[in-house]
Specification:
The structure holds 4 protein chains of 4 kinds. Chain A has 16 helices and no strands. By secondary structure, chain A is mainly alpha-helical. Chain A has a domain of about 325 residues: Formate dehydrogenase/DMSO reductase fold. The N terminus and C terminus of chain A are likely disordered. Chain D has 8 helices and 11 strands. In chain D, the strands form 4 sheets. In chain D, strands 8-1-10-9 form a 4-stranded mixed β-sheet. The longest helix of chain D is centred in the first third of the chain and has 13 residues. The chains are: A mainly alpha, B alpha/beta, C mainly alpha, D alpha+beta. Chains B and D meet through β4, α2, α7, α8 and α22 of B and α2, α3, β2, β3 and α7 of D.
Chain lengths: ~450, ~750, ~180, ~260
């Protein structure tokens, strides 16, 4: 492609990045406007209606009291996963190709976590009392229930959110400084505050590098634990189909899987609409594609395992559960999930597909649709078929729920659109690291971009 | 720091102001709304705020006459429970009885006297005063021909019945009719034929060891369900070693059929033949050794096992087994009623069942049929009950213009009579229709004047339960709350009319309460009460809510030879041809709504039907095989057509019903009776054929043939239940007859229930 | 090019000032409302003075609030109880005329609740009177008030403190007080 | 006691297996399936006693019924050898209740009377307890329910009316237990006698299939019938240790 041949220079990097922040086209504003509009109409309006009317606005019933809100919650947590995790892993194994994409990946983490948190608020019956889930001394002398997996969950997510936001912020301090030095007016002032007076001395660079690596190491186990804990919300119940030891790894893998796919999607968009062709290249898609195949295989393996637990259990409860999943009311969704998450990704075995952008986009989107379905099925099928057959029932999401799913996507998009205009969505200095320093005798004007 | 210039300052002031305002409103919004403490001008004697007061009274939801005690707080009724000292229900109560509160607090009650100001049924009622209402009715009564005055009441007992008698007597009219859909006419007829008594005996289920029930849903709505349930429970597990055995013979499994140890499906209308088959076996097998055995043998000769088996569809060996078990049981009891009595041969059937008791020697002994003493006081209970014949006469007379005034009291014949009776046209022909109902039901909607009566929780009354419990029982029904609306007790309305008509000599009382006290003076003078003076006695009765005297009947029963000779049950006749109308319609009283009076109570609408878990609506039950043949599935809307009309209802595939029978619950299908009942489900009574049980003249409700045809539409009824199969999960466990321990002991949990020394 | 933060702060100062003042206003407004319009001493239909009755004339609380001894609610005296004395006592004072007016028209007096507990709280006066708890513990020094106002904050903290101190049997179990 | 001490002590208490031996009362119920006729009197009694809302046809069609005690039905066999089994299901007040561990705000917990407490005003409506409960006896308020006037005058003042977004379930009629305790205290600080307190369902059961009492009192009706050879616990294999014990139905013909 053209971009590949072009000789890249330090100056260009700065220019490109700053341009992406300062110069804003009409399309951006249109996109932002649409995103905001959809967020308001499809997320906040239905939510307020539900607050006024009660959870009855959703399709939940007896016995299926959990619904798409929880599914969305897991979905967003999952999406949050590879961002920071991947970036950390790749940072430690210092693989070059990470450097162009990790910023946007981490941003994805941040925002999907935020959306996930709002999904919790949407899910509970009395969100105005949600603070009771936080441990603080009060006149009622009441504390949250520390035995509750839901409480573990709150803690874990809070920690992960804090961790990854510090991580992304610390990573972008030098870039803030760089941008600070090239901007004027309110932007300048903003970046003055954000860059914490970064001067670029060796000590600063040294400390930054050290702290950054330290955080990276810290966050990896954290990220893994977060989704294990999310899985415990389900696995610690005794509901047939949920009460399974495989759930923690299952959720972690699923999370990384959908997260990676999410990164592919986001990178495609950045590349296409913010002209980062030089930075986000076939290489990235290729590597991510390989990762995706591995993940999809592991994921499929665990799904097959699940079938066996039901089949070999010999108890009516587990067996009915399995039958219902495969051939029951929700069966079409199940097979759709298998198609999108187990079959389709195998296409990426061919390098041609991995290195061609649009098919990768399609596959990545398909994977995330499939993964959403998976989360929905985990919630819906298990609750519809529990211990007492005469209490069985079917749950169908209501319009409000569906519109909130759409709305949450828009919310995510809005946050991301705002982000790309404030934070350099490609790490300036790390991209530079990937390029050779200028040779003195040549007068510092010509050098080769090395990948 | 830069100094603040003017614009800056203004900004600050603005910000501060806005902030302060917001803060103020925030605090305001968090305040608790004002509440009031309203003291009484004069505190009432009986109750004090925050403390519950209990009043004993009588349940008015069905004719069983259970005693209730109502919990009230701050002068409002909060909960109805059974009256522990009442012998009929002994502190227990059924679902319908519990829901009585929603009759009292029903949003659709008639709150004041009403005059119809449009054409009938136009629901253009306009409020009026009692004075005007009563006098307008009184005028009509005064001008009407004596024989042209008809009074149609729900089945009432005790002094209200007596009051009605007097009132109509004074008016010189013979036409006082009580109408209950579920009144067991055939049973009364059968008893009077065999035993020569016009009131029911007491069926001692409690002490019986073997109950043979021919179509009587005794646990659900037959005669006195709560009392029967008490007996059932005791007979099952209350007796230590011996456990009563229960057999139910009916075409469609009822609640009693579920509870029974054995459910025997017999062709509709052949229960009597089956009974005689058993009798034949008993006599032939010389299990019976009375001196009239030869007469019996002669009378029962034709009912050989094979013939009976052929007619009833019950295998001969089953018949033999049942007969031997029944004859061998000490004591056993055979009861018959419900659908079995609602056939053209109904009376003969029930006679046959009683004969069975006689032959097994269950008459007049504990665990068998015990005879009740006659009613202590008040009007006659049964003789005024209008069977279908009488209702049809009423309709015809109306059309012939012989009825000037019809007074309807809390009964709803337009709902509980088949359309074929032509009552709605008849009402059109009556110049003045007065309704004393508390609700605008179908019949009241056709009235010209509504003089709304109290609910039973607001009014004075008394009740002598029918059937008794083997000895004389009387209960006072007293107001538990002050009337909610501008209504009056039925008795007071009657007295009011009497006053307007100048009948004060015959009806001297100022209020129903007086009338009661007068009546109960007689009971007091019967001497069985050990209190010294009447006031004390009266107070005691009000406190305990019930009075009884321990005088039991001991007279032996001899059956006239002629009765024995013409014992016999004919084949039942049905309306409609088998090939055109392949199914026999089996309408049954639903648990929640009884004969439809419960349909306006939200609790009863939301009470899932025990067998189908369906709420809010009606359905038609079809055997799986016959449904399969017609390609019907659960929830398909079908049209049920008889010779006399057709209704639509969704199909419920029902495992426990005979292939050529379809069953429908009664109760839904109102087109009046308020927001909860209106336009919901279908009313099977409407399409019943106007054929009667020959000997009693009562409606043969189970003798209508129908055809079932798919409409192609679906209307899946609302169910609360899911899949009603256990799938081997061992949720409801059962053990062998001898109830031996088989390791499933509650103590055998991983953490045993230790016992703390108290 | 400067990395100094000072110019930025200079730019931000006005905005910061406005925000700060706004916040202060918010807090001030909130507490102003709470302080000057507490709503804990509403105006009653009759200006009944507990000081005169309970303090000067030393009428015991339970004489009028007789229910407190045997019921969950203390209740207010019925109008005829008031009239019991006020047939003779102070019949000519304007407030008493209001009372007699209610009495003659047989109308109840719409007293406004001062101490009010949420619907989900089960509090029984009976038990607390039986345990010889001074009414003042929860209701404050009512006998000193001309217009009754909610002095003691009747909140869960108050209940718990006492229940702990007195070591009430199962005093901290939620279902002891919540229904 | 400082917070820490209290925390430690209760921690110890709740760690020991069978901690409920220390219960003051241990309320329990037995249900004799051989007596139960499925007449549903208990259901309505419960509705009346506990202000259970009338949810309406639409909500019921969406499967949002509210019955703290419901009667499940299980068919066995096919016509003509078919029989129906009824089983009343209410909150089993498990001594090892799954719902109690999951509630993040401790809105449901086990109290000293062996009752599984549901605290409406603490509940934030995560609904996880309903998912964790294998007996499906927890019901959620999807709306603010209203009663057509004057039906609301029937509401029991001793029981709060639950607002939207709150989980609710059978309480063994705790308001009646409270009342009984109150009387017992007035009556010289004695304990509650056996049979002195009965939940609405037990009180009204026409066949006397339900028995309620104190498991800790060996003389009580309920302890006796819990040791009946027919006694078993529904889903006992889950070892949730219910306080509700069922007595097996007797199949006279099964031999």
């Amino acid at each position: 492609m053209q971009a590949e041949e072009r000789k890249l220079q330090f100056a260009d990097v700065n220019d490109d990045v700053v341009r992406s922040l300062v110069v804003t086209g009409r399309n951006y504003y249109i996109a932002l406007a649409i995103a905001v509009l959809v967020t308001l109409s499809c997320f906040f309006f239905p939510w307020f209606y539900q607050l006024y009317y009660g959870i009855g606005a959703a399709g939940n019933n007896h016995p299926a009291v959990w619904g798409t809100y929880l599914a969305s919650f897991i979905f967003w947590i999952g999406l949050s996963h590879s961002g920071t995790l991947l970036s950390c892993v790749l940072h430690i194994t210092n693989s070059e190709w990470r450097k162009a994409m990790y910023r946007s990946a981490e941003a994805m983490t941040l925002f999907s976590l935020m959306v996930a948190a709002t999904m919790v608020m949407v899910h509970v019956g009395r969100p105005w009392f949600i603070h009771w889930a936080a441990p603080y001394p009060n006149q009622m002398e009441l504390w949250p229930n520390f035995r509750s997996p839901l409480l573990f969950d709150v803690m874990a997510i809070a920690t992960y959110l804090t961790g990854s936001s510090i991580f992304i912020y610390m990573g972008s301090i030098p870039d803030f400084a760089a941008v600070r030095d090239r901007t004027t007016g309110w932007r300048h002032h903003m970046y003055v505050l954000l860059s914490l007076g970064w001067r670029g001395t060796d000590t600063e660079w040294h400390r930054l590098g050290w702290a950054y690596t330290f955080l990276a190491v810290l966050i990896i186990p954290l990220a893994v634990s977060v989704h294990s804990i999310v899985s415990w919300d389900f696995a610690m119940s005794i509901v047939p189909g949920l009460h399974q030891t495989i759930f923690a790894p299952y959720f972690v893998v699923g999370a990384i899987y959908s997260g990676t796919a999410g990164i592919v999607t986001v990178m495609y968009v950045l590349r296409k609409y913010m002209n980062f062709e030089q930075y986000i290249t076939k290489l990235h898609f290729d590597n991510l594609g390989k990762l995706l195949i591995v993940l999809s295989l592991i994921w499929t393996y665990i799904n097959v395992l699940e079938l066996f637990t039901g089949w070999y259990s010999g108890t009516s409860t587990e067996y009915e559960q399995l039958k219902y999943k495969l051939f029951g009311f929700y069966a079409p969704l199940y097979w759709e999930m298998i198609l999108f998450c187990a079959a389709l990704p195998l296409l990426m075995i061919s390098r041609r597909i991995r290195t061609s952008f649009f098919p990768m986009l399609l596959i990545s989107v398909a994977i995330n649709i499939g993964m959403y379905t998976e989360r929905f099925l985990i919630v819906a099928t298990t609750q519809s078929r529990q211990y007492l057959p005469d209490a069985w029932g079917v749950y169908i999401p209501s319009l409000v729920e569906i519109s909130i799913i759409v709305g949450s996507l828009a919310l995510f998009t809005t946050l991301f659109l705002i982000f790309v205009k404030i934070v350099p969505s490609v790490s300036i200095y790390e991209v530079k690291e990937t390029m050779a320093t200028p040779k003195p005798e040549k007068g510092g004007s010509e050098w080769q971009a090395t990948h | 720091m830069s100094k603040v210039d003017r614009r800056e300052f203004l900004k600050l002031v603005g910000a501060g102001g806005v902030g302060a305002g917001a803060g103020f409103m925030l605090a305001e919004s968090l305040k608790h709304p004002t509440e009031f403490l309203i003291p009484y001008p004069v505190p009432p004697e009986e109750f004090s705020p925050g403390i519950a007061t209990w009043y004993n009274s009588v349940c008015g939801m069905c004719p069983a006459g259970c005693g209730i005690s109502v919990r009230t707080r701050e002068g409002r009724a909060k909960k109805i429970e059974g009256n522990p000292s009442h012998p009929v229900n002994q502190g227990r109560l059924c679902a319908l009885g519990q829901a009585g509160l929603q009759v009292l607090y029903n949003p659709d009650r008639v709150t004041a006297p009403m005059l119809q100001h449009g054409d009938r049924g136009s629901d253009a009622f306009i409020q009026t005063t009692w004075e005007d209402g009563l006098s307008s009715v009184a005028e009509h009564l005064a001008t009407a021909r004596d024989s042209g005055i008809y009074f149609l009441s729900q089945g009432v007992r005790g002094h209200l019945a007596m009051l009605l008698e007097l009132f109509m007597g004074e008016l010189g009219s013979e036409h006082l009719l009580h109408h209950d859909f579920a009144h067991p006419h055939s049973l009364y007829a059968a008893n009077s034929r065999l035993f020569g008594e016009d009131h029911l005996p007491y069926y001692d289920i409690r002490n019986t060891r073997y109950l043979l029930s021919f179509g009587a849903d005794y646990l659900n709505n037959w005669l006195s369900p709560v009392h029967h349930s008490l007996g059932f429970g005791h007979s099952r597990q209350g007796n230590g070693a011996t456990r009563g055995r229960f057999v139910q013979i009916e075409p469609k499994m009822s609640i009693s059929g579920v509870a029974a140890d054995e459910w025997v499906p017999a062709r509709p209308g052949t229960e009597g033949i089956l009974a005689l088959g058993l009798a034949h076996r008993i006599v032939a097998g010389s299990a019976y050794a009375g001196d009239d055995v030869d007469d019996w043998a002669a009378a029962l000769a034709p009912y050989t096992a094979d013939r009976v088996a052929e007619q009833s569809g019950v295998p001969a060996e089953t018949i033999a087994r049942l007969a031997d078990e029944f004859a061998g049981a000490e004591p056993g009891l055979a009861i018959g009623g419900g659908a079995a009595g609602d056939h053209t041969n109904g009376v003969d059937t029930l006679v046959a069942v009683n004969a069975l008791n006689y032959l097994a020697g269950n008459i007049g002994k504990p665990g068998g049929v015990v005879f009740n003493p006659g009613p202590v006081t008040g009007g006659p209970a049964n003789k005024r009950q209008a069977n279908y014949q009488a209702m049809q006469d009423l309709a015809e007379n109306a059309l012939r213009g012989e009825i000037d005034v019809l007074i309807v009291n809390n009964t709803n014949p337009l709902f509980t009579l088949p359309r074929a009776a032509g009552l709605s046209e008849a009402l059109e022909a009556i110049p003045l229709v007065v309704s004393l109902s508390s609700f605008v039901d179908e019949t009241t909607a056709m009235a010209d004047v509504i003089l709304p009566s109290h609910t039973y929780l607001e009014s004075w009354g008394d009740d002598m339960p029918q059937p008794g419990v083997g000895f004389s029982v009387g209960a006072i029904s007293q107001p538990v709350v002050s009337p909610l609306y501008n209504t009056r007790a039925t008795g007071d309305i009657i007295l009011g009319l009497a006053g307007k008509l100048g009948l004060n000599q015959a009806l001297p009382w100022t209020s129903m309460e007086d009338c009661l006290k007068d009546g109960w003076r007689q009971i007091f003078t019967r001497g069985s009460a050990e209190t010294e003076n009447f006031d004390a006695f009266w107070r005691d009765v009000l406190v305990s809510g019930v009075w009884g005297e321990n005088r039991r009947r001991t007279d032996a029963i001899v059956i006239d030879k002629r009765v024995i000779d013409d014992i016999g049950v004919a084949e039942p006749e049905f309306s409609g041809e088998r090939d055109e109308y392949p199914f026999i319609l089996h309408p049954y009283l639903s648990t929640a709504m009884y004969d439809g009076r419960g349909a306006n109570l939200p609790w009863m609408q939301e009470l899932p039907d025990p067998m189908s878990s369906i709420v809010y609506g009606s359905w038609v039950e079809i055997n799986p095989t016959s449904a399969g043949e017609m390609g019907l599935e659960d929830g398909d809307l079908v049209r049920i057509t008889s010779e006399h009309g057709s209704i639509e209802a969704p199909v419920l595939i029902f495992p426990a019903i005979m292939p050529d029978v379809v069953a429908m619950p009664i109760g839904q299908g109102h087109d009046a009776l308020g927001r909860y009942a209106r336009n919901r489900g279908a009313n099977p009574i409407q399409i019943l054929a106007p054929i009667t049980a020959s000997a009693s003249g009562s409606l043969a409700a189970s003798a209508t043939r129908v055809s079932v045809s798919a409409t192609g539409r679906r209307a899946a009824p609302v169910k609360t239940g899911g899949v009603s199969r256990q799938l081997g999960r061992d949720i409801v466990r059962s053990t062998g007859g001898d109830a031996t321990p088989d390791g499933h002991d509650a103590r055998l949990n991983s953490i045993p229930i230790k016992v703390k020394s108290v | 090019m400067s990395v100094s933060i000072v110019p930025t702060l200079r730019v931000l100062l006005p905005a910061a000032r406005i925000a700060l003042v706004g916040l202060l206003g918010l807090i001030a407004g909130f507490f102003a409302n709470a302080a000057f319009f507490p709503g804990t001493s509403p105006e009653q239909p009759i200006a009944f003075s507990h000081r005169i009755h309970a303090d000067e004339n030393e009428i015991p609380c339970l004489y009028c609030h007789v229910q407190a001894r045997r019921s969950i609610s203390a209740g207010v005296p019925s109008v005829n109880k008031c009239m019991g004395c006020h047939n003779e006592v102070a019949t000519d004072s304007p407030q008493i005329r209001l009372l007699t007016n209610y009495w003659e028209t047989k109308e109840p007096i719409p007293w406004i609740k001062v101490h009010d507990l949420p619907d989900f709280v089960h509090f029984t006066h009976k038990r607390h009177v039986a345990a010889d708890i001074e009414c003042q513990t929860c209701h404050g020094p009512v006998e000193t008030m001309d217009v009754v106002s909610r002095e003691a904050p009747v909140k869960m903290g108050l209940c718990l403190a006492c229940h702990k101190e007195e070591e009430v049997e199962h005093g901290t179990d939620c279902w002891t007080c919540h229904k | 006691m400082s917070f820490m001490e209290r925390f430690v002590s209760s921690w110890r208490k709740f760690r020991t297996p069978g901690y409920y031996d220390e219960f003051d009362y241990a309320w329990g119920m037995t249900i004799d399936l051989d007596r139960c006729t499925g007449c549903k009197a208990c259901v309505t009694a419960c509705q009346a006693e506990n202000n259970i809302p009338i949810v309406g046809e639409k909500a019921l069609a969406r499967g949002r019924e509210m019955q703290w005690i419901r009667i499940e039905r299980y068919w066995e066999g096919e016509y003509p050898n078919v029989r129906l089994r009824f089983i009343p299901l209410l909150c089993q007040h498990c001594d090892a209740a799954p719902c109690e561990t999951v509630c993040p705000v401790s809105a449901t917990y086990h109290n000293q009377d062996g009752l599984n407490v549901q605290l409406y005003n603490r509940c934030i409506g995560t609904r996880s307890c309903a998912v964790y409960c294998p007996y499906e006896v927890r019901y959620f308020n999807y709306y603010d329910h209203h009663w057509d006037a004057p039906l609301e005058q029937q509401l029991n003042p001793d029981v709060t009316v639950r607002e939207k977004g709150v989980m609710e379930k059978c309480t063994f009629c705790v308001q009646r237990i409270r009342q009984a305790k109150d009387h017992a205290k007035d009556d010289g600080q004695r304990r509650i006698k056996d049979g002195e307190v009965q939940p609405a369902c037990v009180q009204t059961c026409p066949t006397e299939a339900l028995v309620f009492g104190d498991r800790n009192d060996p003389e009580s009706e309920v302890s006796k019938s819990m040791h009946d050879p027919r006694a078993y616990r529904v889903l006992g294999e889950l070892n949730t240790l219910p306080s509700v014990v069922y007595l097996k139905k007797v199949d006279a013909d099964a031999g």
